[in-house]
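Justification of resources, computational component.

The compute hours requested in this renewal are based largely on the per-chain cost of generating structure records like the one below. Each record pairs the submitted sequence with a full structure-token output. That output is archived, and it is also reused by downstream analysis tasks.
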Amino acid sequence: MTNIIPITDFNDPILDVYARTPEVQLLRYREPKPGIFIAESPKVIERALDAGYEPLSFLMETQHIESQGKELMERCPEVPVYVAELSVLNELTGFSLTRGMLCAMNRKPLPSVEEVCKNARRIAVLENVVNPTNVGAIVRSAAALGMDSILFTSGCSNPLYRRAVRVSMGTIFQIPWTIMDEEWSDKGIEKLQSYGFRTAAMALRDDSVSIDDERLLSEKKLAIVLGTEGDGLAVDTIAACDYTVRIPMSHGVDSLNVAAASAVAFYVINKEV
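The structure output for this chain reads:
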């Protein structure tokens, strides 16, 4: 294959996107057009390709040319493939590659909030969840446990950051999502309610109802709103929601990590009444 290029120079500018460009800069790589992102591992790359994302280049361990990378390369015969031994790739990127493979890909324009909500019954709303590992875990739970779509506020870690994509196992490419900017700060809860959603804030308050309350389960359209690590949801957000919801605890535990709480909530609200 003529598009296989052995890495001989760490300083080659073509490798900057993998080694020397921060993710915030990748996000803004082509402003005002959508930027690029890095997909890690064969499964994640495959799911991104299946979802129609355009690859720019591959970076992979030499041994994968005839194994895990072969099918991906056959799907993208014109895309350059930069190769080296795993120890070289780890030194170049500064982290241990999952299954020895990365792919730089173009982002797509984001859909509108209305598009993402249009045919949904159960949606997740993430308010300022800043840890990419938590974002990825919540996305994976949402896709696996019956949520129809996800809305992220602009204060969240971007769901296409490398770690978030990897932790989600590429399920971010399998569930509709978008990022809210002015929609959230400018009466975002009211916007969701105008689409017919009842809104449920996950918060530890005395007036919270249990996540398995029949009133919640019987709602035709429900948005579960999850807040940032540590501080949780903003006071104004909680006040604007139709319900305040908590997960019953035992052994003196007062709360769960936001990713764990999301999995419990998503599973329960998708059960039949």
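The chain has a mean pLDDT of 91. DSSP finds 13 helices and twelve strands in the chain.
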